[in-house]
Write a structure and sequence with these properties.
CATH class of the largest domain: Alpha Beta
Number of helices: 17
Low-confidence stretches: none
CATH topology of the largest domain: Molybdenum Cofactor Biosythetic Enzyme, Chain A
Number of domains: 3
Largest sheet: 6 strands, mixed
CATH architecture of the largest domain: 3-Layer(aba) Sandwich
Length: 411
Amino acid sequence: MKTAVLVAIGDELLSGIRREGNCASLVWLLHDAGWSVLRVEIVPDDVPRIVDVLERWVGKTELLVFSGGLGPTHDDKTRYALAEYLKCGLSVNDVLYDRIVARFEDASWKALVERSRPVQGLIPVEAQGVYNPAGSALGIHFEKSGTQVWSFPGVPFEFKAMARQELTPFLSRKQGESARSWKSVAVIGVPESLAVERVPEIVADDRLHISILPSFGLVEFVIRGDASLVESAARTVRERFAGHVLPEGCVTLPEAILATGREKGLTFSCAESCTGGLIGAALTDVPGSSAVFAGSAVVYNDQAKKKLLSVESFVLDNYGAVSGECAESMARGALDRYGTSLALAVTGIAGPDGGTQEKPVGTVWFAEASWVAGEVESRSFVRRLDGDREFVRERAARIALIAAWRRMCEL
């Protein structure tokens, strides 16, 4: 199997100011093409540390990809590290940089890009420049000791555009090479330890590489290996967890809700209080969500609940905003306002303040409302979630998505 090493460069990644996403996105592309990723590393904007990576991996992997450190500022060190490793100087690649400048019609933008030419156009003389179709910093490429080395800017949309442009030829499977693939099967409502116990023969099969990825309420099996073995293993997992497996091709709950809604001709809406729009945001992250998802009413205070969802004062005065009665009234209000097949509501106390002895912080009520035989049916349930405000909100959104998908399967 062909191998690759991915390296993200940036002090901001090690300090927590920014999260690394470029290498993570490229990993999936590599796995899809049958490559094995040996290592993903994060190193600071430091010439010796970058040179050390090159010395450790050139000649030991077929592909080495760097992300970051090619901008115009003092902390962008990658081009200088590559030149030091190659023991050569740098020169401006005017031919490629002219193509970048020519893309900009506005005179002020053109002048700004031109100012960066002396730095962003610099390429080690023993390497080749790489045209950037989405930004103004040139990439860098060279081959040494059987290793193809590519360096792209760290701005995510620039990195992705250049990776697609330059790496596609290297990711195609060679003739005669055995077909390898991967499949993901997502299971909800089953703890990780029990999930593994149900498919012991698959986990123990040394011809397969099995990754078990648990998250709140969901366990994902990522199965990699020869295509025929992967297909058989995925089928077995689906059979063993019948009733708990997300639809084929879906690895997230929003994907499952939208796929099931499209299959059954159902539509969905939300009413959110303590989650503040997290459910709607998760659903609209999926392209084409409007075919199923109508919208989410974020009703944080009592007046909004009354005005937008017709929650009655009697309900709020006698049961409170954090109650099954209020949650069901919110769900019915969303069902009516959006005209959907199914609606789900969430209301709770995320903290750190606002809790009482009867309703402590972390108390969250959920409700579903749907049309059944021409009548609206609703039901509610409560969960007590321990943790800080972010934890309670995120877990509440996940519980709501699980409930919505299960209800969709029932309708």
